[in-house]
Amino acid sequence: MKLYRFSASAGVFVQDAPQCPEQHGVQAYAHPEACNIFFLCTNGTLTVETCENGLLFDGKGAVHNHCNYNWAVHCGERKADLTPISTPGCEYQFGIYPDSHECSTNYIKCAYGEPHPQACEPGLVYDEKIHGCNWPDLLLETCNPEGK
């Protein structure tokens, strides 16, 4: 007999929901079909959780509530809901974005849809490919290290 249960918080049906293997501590497990949903066991109590907009579950992420930035997660066969919920300066509620498409020493980190300007360490510039700061001479296609 299969167990079907509706999770109102995640808005999904949970088929064959796992039992918590540990009765103490906190463990998180991937949902078999959805990359933005996961199972959370807290002291033996199972809940179904949903990652915030722009985040997905990979079991390693610690950006917010066991979830990681969507570009850092490999979902495999699991489906990912990447519908943006945009606010000025933020494509998703959580994410890291360039502050301009030019060579820049600054970037925007979004949390709960609020843009927070960030600065790279001296001598570094924002690299959109790695979503972090990098040496400008590694970005010759988009950035002139001599500033000309």
From TrEMBL:
Residues 17-77, 87-145 form the Chitin-binding type-2 domain. The keyword Glycoprotein applies. Keywords: Chitin-binding, Disulfide bond, Glycoprotein, Repeat, Signal. GO terms for cellular component: extracellular region. SMART domains: ChtBD2 (SM00494). One of its GO terms (molecular function) is chitin binding. The keyword Repressor does not apply. This is Chitin-binding type-2 domain-containing protein.
